[in-house]
Amino acid sequence: QRVVTQPPSQSASPGQTVKLSCTASPAGNWYFGWVRQQPGQRPQFVLYGSNRGEGIPDRFSGSSNRGNPNYLTITNAQAEDEAEYYCAAWEDNNGKPPS
């Protein structure tokens, strides 16, 4: 059984640094990405490795897309960053990243 785990919700004050984590099991070769959904908005791609989605500022950074656990860091958090953040994980079965 494949399980992706994120900790309970986190809160921060403006200007703080927030580090979100995601772990996939069982241990193996995984790729990770991050998406978010802001209140009343459609889901938005945030980060895959070092590649940020459209409109995502460089305050958002990630660990390698292969690290397990995987991390999304928001530096100098702002009120507009409030959202539900979701980790997505793909198992590497063929040596190639997901398309």
Automatic annotation (TrEMBL):
Domain of life: Eukaryota
Record region (Disordered): 1-20
Signal peptide (from-to): none
InterPro entries to which the protein is assigned, alphabetical: Ig-like_dom (IPR007110), Ig-like_dom_sf (IPR036179), Ig-like_fold (IPR013783), Ig_sub (IPR003599), Ig_V-set (IPR013106), IgV_Light_Chain (IPR050150)
Domain (Ig-like): residue spans on this chain: 1-99
Record's protein name: Ig-like domain-containing protein
Organism: Varanus komodoensis
